[in-house]
Amino acid sequence: MPPLVSIITPSFNQARYLEATMQSVLAQDYPRLEYLIVDGGSLDGSVDIIKKHESKLAWWVSEKDRGQTDAINKGFARANGEILAWLNSDDTYNAGAVSAAVEYLQEHPEVGMVYSDCNYINEEGQVIGKFPAAQTDQRRLRAGYVHIPQQTMFFRADLWKQVGPLDPSFYFAMDYDLWTRIAAHSQIKYLPGQTWANFRLHTSGKTITADDRCWPDMLRVHYRDGGSFFSIIVAKYYVRKLIAPLWNWRRRNRLGIK
Question: Per the CB 3.0–4.6 Å rule, which of 55, 66, 113, 220 could disulfide with 70?
């Protein structure tokens, strides 16, 4: 039997994109997949979309929660899979993503987490760029060289049992925090040349509206784990603060946001 894969989608008022996300999961060719959706009590028609596909879901709920991190933790608490992933409700998988990730993890038992390349897409789903994915490890993660598109990552459930759950005090970098903990226990591997997912940039997405909260979260991880002020990640934070206006202008310009 191939391993069971559990995929969680946290969502709140993302009806415009939710069905595309769900369909990209349900259309995967992998034979043993359980899909769980944790909605935060949406009032925009999201529940109707979920109910439309509920016969294909392992579990879903729509109730008030404490945000994205809480929703992901709630989903994983219900998951039974040997391999885990989450896909946010505005992102999508490409065909064959799950099968490719499972195949690599089965062939490389020493690897605990795997990820690949990822497209940037706009509100209409058109590809507008490429995420700068690259191989990283614990040392480089701690230095702020992340290069992991969260949409493409798959990791082993036994690692989640060791290092999870996500820290709900993080608004933005809960995935970065998890990656540093996984990398301390196991190898993580980047597979270039495979594009497993699409990262949607849009006007209400956290990457556009709250990007300035990412690096402070990452610095919290750095200092919590004994990092020094005189380090690469701190220097990168201050450089990024200086160039943030230009960085955000370029992103908004790419999306046609004034």
Answer: 66
